[in-house]
Design goal:
Structural class: mainly beta
Strand content: over 45%
Number of helices: 1
Strand order of the largest sheet: 1-9-10-11-12-8-7
Order of helices and strands: EEEEEEEEHEEEE
Largest sheet: 7 strands, mixed
Number of strands: 12
Distance between the termini: 41 Å
Radius of gyration: 15 Å
Low-confidence stretches: none
Helix content: under 10%
């Protein structure tokens, strides 16, 4: 039984479009989009929301709206490293896409499932009939700001997308 404030991994309706790791895009220019699930915190004096989208995820933290998703009109792939000032804060984004063999992919998904379940600092979901597809975001406070990590798994290509963002006081 989860303790108060902790969430189990959610099960969401599967996306209506096929999502591919190399089609995920990164932007700080989209407004907050309609989520399929949302969770909020107050961290370092900043309101933060993790938002699972039909084709990715979004984090809204103070002046920053970061979107990692397959979006119409935006092309992938994700940048490896990107830094930008946002509303007086320094935002740094990094992404990696790992291709795994079957056994390693299965272990990675199992690890992420255990890691993201029953945490008070995370929002994560899988899809009925596709327990090897999961999307999750973990948020934490840093000494000078906020950090969030995101993951998305793609079993058809055995890829794991891992992102890390830091929003630091400028």
């Amino acid at each position: 039984m989860p303790t108060p404030g902790r969430f189990r991994m959610l099960e969401l309706s599967p996306p209506t479009v096929e999502i591919k790791a190399d089609a995920l895009s990164f932007t700080l220019d989209e407004p907050a989009l309609g989520p399929t699930a949302v969770r909020g915190w107050r961290i370092a004096g900043v309101d933060v929301q993790a938002r699972l989208l039909p084709t990715g995820f979004q984090v809204v933290a103070g002046p920053c709206v970061e979107t990692v998703a397959q979006l119409e009109g935006r092309q992938g792939p994700l940048p490896y490293h990107l830094g930008r000032d946002v509303g007086g804060w320094s935002h740094v984004f990094t992404a990696d896409v790992y291709r795994r063999d079957y056994a390693d992919f299965t272990r990675a998904v199992a690890f992420l499932r255990r890691y993201l379940t029953d945490r008070d600092d995370a929002l994560a979901a899988s899809f009925p009939g596709r327990q090897d597809v999961l999307c999750g975001v973990l948020v934490r406070q840093l000494r000078r700001g906020i950090e969030w990590r995101g993951w998305y798994t793609f079993p058809d290509t055995r890829q794991v997308v891992s992102t890390r963002s830091r929003l630091l006081i400028g």
